[in-house]
Amino acid sequence: MTWHAGADLLVVGTGVAGLTAALRARERGLRVLVVSKEAAGVGNTEWAQGGIAVVRSEECDPADSVRQHVRDTLEAGAGLCSTSAVRTILGDGAAAVRRLCAAGARFDGEASGALSRTREGGHSAFRVIHAGGDATGAEVQRALVEAGTEAGIPILENHCVVELSHTEWGAVGGALVLDHAGRPGVVQAPAVLLATGGLGQLYRATTNPEVATGDGVALGLRAGAAVADLEFVQFHPTVLHTSATERGSRPLITEAVRGEGAVLLDSRGEPVMAGRHPMGDLAPRDVVAAAINEKLAETGSESVYLDATGLGDGFVARFPTVYTACRDAGIDPLVEPIPVTTAAHYSCGGIMCDVDGRTGVTGLYVAGEVARTGLHGANRLASNSLLEGLVLGTRSADAALRDLRSGSLRRGSVVTERPPAAAVVERSRLQRLMSGYAGIGRHADGLRRAKSGLDAAAVVRPLRSRSEVEDAALGLTAHALLAAAADRTESRGCHRRYDHPGTDDLRWGRPNPLRLDVSGWLIRSTPEESREVA
């Protein structure tokens, strides 16, 4: 090893969950070190357009309440949410937003004394607060990065975590890290928090930036943690479709546009959501995305259309990010419908943890999109993700502090090995397989084809560079997702099986945890193991 560092808490990731945890831990007196693959401001958080779903007593619809927010979340989650986790996380929401505002975040309407609120798919009330019109994530990221800088929190930018290290008694005790020049080093810390974000780069078309390569899922699995609900990948119903956006990260057209009155039309001008759901264009995302894909298959078109012309000139001020993306593509949303299609957006599953971010591995905590808390179930309710990152970031930092003070976490020497070797698949091939066989619609034969294709294309290599680490993470995460999707022989939420179109509550009304055995094979965890952190 060429370099060493140490901390009480190592945070991996600089999105809303990671930076919130780092700020909380520093505030409570812990030595914190943060690792980021890129600059601190790069990641999924800054791309979030819609807002933060939260019920605040000082400003809410007369009929709205945290209880109603809980009901909406459970309805969207299609029977797989943890009711206790939903109540806890949403109940902490108002306090989390207050802390965010204290850290410097500024929301629309603040100058008038009441934050502006909108409504998104699956919500029964106007409870989504936003910033910069449709730039909420960018404002959250800005505020947290600036607060972290002012607090003097050290961030190792352009550093990549290769593997989590263990102490002699089996607890997580730090990480093997590559610096900006690819030199390996060791960070020792009795508590490690993974806040690495999502896995959108498994697919050819995604709303996620290029850093979203499933790193945390792979790190957690290799460290001994269980994962669950990976089969539930939420595809956003409305991303901009042009000839230039066939592959890669696509501009998101926030759901709030429909919340303000825009409607989805097919290529014949007929409403996409007519007769499909009581909430129409504001139905949960899995319902809308599936309806769009059916329309595309029916009409042979490459896109449907989001007609926002009825919103008038106010569209520009309310949705500046969307307006700019459309104009850059040669589309004027004030006078013509926006061509849209679906793209991989959010992972509802991840590493299993409790509402304090604790996993089944001593010393390992998770927060944000990489965590499976039970909040999202089979389909995330719109704008619950930033809220979860804020709440879990705080709660996981508090949990790590309590565990350190109680003596349940101890410092110990860690094994400092060379970078490990792992199976790597060329990324474009992996993305073709996953998009072709593990997208919105799935069946057993396609899932088998995807797995066989990954196996045939895999090459074992030492993980000596960031790209190799990311490709290995994508490969392991893809295998875990395929295994979970093959196991779940039903259709529920984001997971739709053409060969099993019905929902089977008796057999599948529960998570299906997976972990790696000592030989590195994915195996199904027992119900007892899954209850440990459920």
From TrEMBL:
Enzymatic reactions: L-aspartate + O2 = iminosuccinate + H2O2
Pfam families: FAD_binding_2, Succ_DH_flav_C
Keyword Heme attributed: no
Any one GO molecular-function label of the UniProt entry: steroid dehydrogenase activity, acting on the CH-CH group of donors
Domain FAD-dependent oxidoreductase 2 FAD-binding positions: 8-386
Domain Fumarate reductase/succinate dehydrogenase flavoprotein-like C-terminal residues, every copy: 473-508
Coiled coil: none
Entry EC no(s): 1.4.3.16
Pathway: Cofactor biosynthesis; NAD(+) biosynthesis; iminoaspartate from L-aspartate (oxidase route): step 1/1
Residues spanning the membrane: none
The UniProt record lists the keyword Oxidoreductase: yes
Localization terms from the record: Cytoplasm
Superkingdom of origin: Bacteria
Enzyme class: oxidoreductase
Family membership noted in the UniProt record: Belongs to the FAD-dependent oxidoreductase 2 family. NadB subfamily.
Protein's UniProt name: L-aspartate oxidase
Organism: Actinopolyspora alba
